[in-house]
Amino acid sequence: MTDESISAKPHRAAVSRQLPWKTRLYTSLLTAVIDASCRSNGTVNRLLFSLFDVRSSASAKPARGVRTADVTVDSSRNLWFRLFLPSSSSSGAQIPVFVFFHGGGFAFMSPASRAYDDYCRRVCHEVEVAVVSVNYRLSPENRYPSQYEDGLDVLRFLDGGGLATADPTAADLDLSSCFLVGDSAGGNIVHHVARRWAADAGQGGWKSLQLAGMVLIQPYFGGEERTEAEVRLAGAPMVSVERTDWLWRAFLPEGADRDHEAVNVFGPRATGELEAALPEAMLVVGGFDPLQDWQRRYYEGMTTRGKAVRLLEYPDAIHGFYAFPELKQSEALIEEMKAFVEAHRSPPN
């Protein structure tokens, strides 16, 4: 690691002993590449990260039971999404929709990143939903609230019939059974986009798109305080205090701190009541994730404000466990998502 990168400090490894060696290797490599790509001047070495970030192309030819297509929403800001459709769905069958926001600390990855292409393909096939995986703008080139604005604009695009125009084969998507789903930073985006959708819904601002639920997978929340888990799990793969501090500085407006409402959603600067239309949530927490205390505070903040949240805790799970199909918790989460969809989708016609 060079002097242009996040400074490396010796920390105790915080990885579950049960992790397969391939999982350990991937998370270690990704952590190292992210750290090396985060320069001390607040910029990202995109070229360096691209050497690790292997991309997959969309294909109309089904692979593993799923076909894909890339759909442009606004070329001026490179806003697009990758659409994943089950190749086995029967004509006329109404398919629930997952609008998915990838993780990466707001600064890394895309729907074309192989890890996310693989994961969304798997979710599409096993949960039996269409997946709209959003390519939102990245920080630090585009700071708050760019990512939330992009997410809301994708919902407006879907609500306005843009997808049916761009891909007539997607006409059977059930926009009345739309779920916002995201991991890590994507989970943060889910909350803030859902609130914006709900505010508009309270004023009759949507034609056909209805949010049936939110799925926040190890969402990226935080604050100025150092929590017990952040201290105890120092050195964990993917997430550390130094790494998250850098990413928050790259994301937030200049001069803002981590008690900004985008980060500490129920913290000292939180404003306003939660919108009545905000749907039920499923919240996923891992026992080896340094962010777990903030995620539990999110659960408390939502439930004390009268919102229903299904809390799923996986005691042996690292941050990002869901992306590794070889981990038993990953398959368990897929089954939980299937059950959540069935419980909250609109009744099929």
Quaternary state of the chains: single chain
Mean pLDDT: 92
What does the radius of gyration come to?
Answer: 19 Å
The spatial strand order of the largest sheet comes to: 1-2-4-3-5-6-7-8
Compressed to H and E, one letter per element, the order equals HHEEEHEHHEHEHHEHEH
Quickly count the helices.
10
Helix fraction, binned, reads 25-40%
Query: What is the CA–CA distance across the termini?
Result: 57 Å
Runs in which pLDDT lies below 50 for 5 or more consecutive residues are 1-14
Task: Name the overall outline.
Answer: globular
**Major sheet summary line:** 8 strands, mixed
Secondary structure class reads alpha/beta
Strand content: 15-25%
InterPro entries: AB_hydrolase_3, AB_hydrolase_fold, Carboxylest/Gibb_receptor
Domain Alpha/beta hydrolase fold-3: 98-322
Organism: Canna indica (Indian-shot)
GO molecular function: hydrolase activity
Short description:
The chain is α/β, with parallel strands linked by helices and 349 residues long. The chain has 10 helices and 8 strands. Helix 4 (146-159) crosses helix 6 (185-201).
What does this 3D model show about the protein?
The protein is an alpha/beta fold and 349 residues long. It has helices spanning 21-37, 46-50, 114-128, 146-159, 162-166, 185-201, 228-232, 241-251, 292-304, 328-344; strands at 66-74, 79-86, 95-101, 130-135, 173-183, 211-217, 281-288, 309-318. Strands 1-2-4-3-5-6-7-8 form an eight-stranded mixed sheet, with helices on both faces. The protein is globular. Mean pLDDT is 92; it is low at 1-14.
